[in-house]
Amino acid sequence: MMKRVKAPRNVFVNFPLGRPCGKPNNTQMQTEILKDALNFLKSAQEPGELIDLSYDWGSDFDWNDYMNDIKEMLEEEGSEKQEWKPEK
Amino acid sequence: MRIQGARNMEPINYVTCLNEMYQSQGFPPYQWSKFETSPWIPFKKPLNQACIGLISSAGIFLDDQEPFDSWAVNDLSVRLIKTDTPHAKFRLHHNYFDHRDALKDFNCVFPVDRLSELEREGFIGSFAPKAATLGMGRLYKRTALQAETVPKLVEIMKEQSVDAVLLVAA
After folding, report:
1. What ipTM was estimated for this complex?
2. What sign does the CA torsion over B71, B73, B79, B83 have?
3. Residue A68 forms contact with B (CB below 8 Å)
4. pTM of whole model > 0.90?
5. Residue B7 included in any domain
């Protein structure tokens, strides 16, 4: 997604969606990610450059996990899943 | 920064996965934004003299502001949030990502505490006192987003004389 949008400087952290600045209540990790991102303001060399910070989430995750996490979250919160239908 | 032992895992390709999911349900292909070039201004100011602004699209608002719709479609509105607001007043409505960690610690998607600390530490010159937040959701109005919402965001940041903006996409 970032490669497509091509903001002037792009910082990627390969974590499950919703934790781009680090794990909850992990102040040290969040601070390091933000410092890396801010340092990239100066170290980026060319327009649209993307840096992959390679922090480790600690376990593998994929698209099915993303869908299952949302389902689980909605169940926990007692929310209905929104169903979208193509326009006829 | 490279972490020793970090797993070498391919990122999820959300564009491909979303395309496959929705097209198998009979939706027409989504027109994803794609840009070939980027605007570029070399960043010359030392970080410890720079003012940094924050924009987050995680659907965060204050308890006395109009809520975002958790299942928003084409929501182009913006909320202004003073960055020293107590977290107890923060709300988050956004069901297109798993927001449970963000509710435990808003800094996951809205790093106001961390940026305030970096200001106190002198790592950055200052942290702009007003952040802008968006909800957006499913978006089919890119022209309106660019013509209406973006100028508002630019104005909010310019008023505070920021030197750079951290955009946190959720």
Report:
1. 0.91
2. positive
3. no
4. yes
5. no
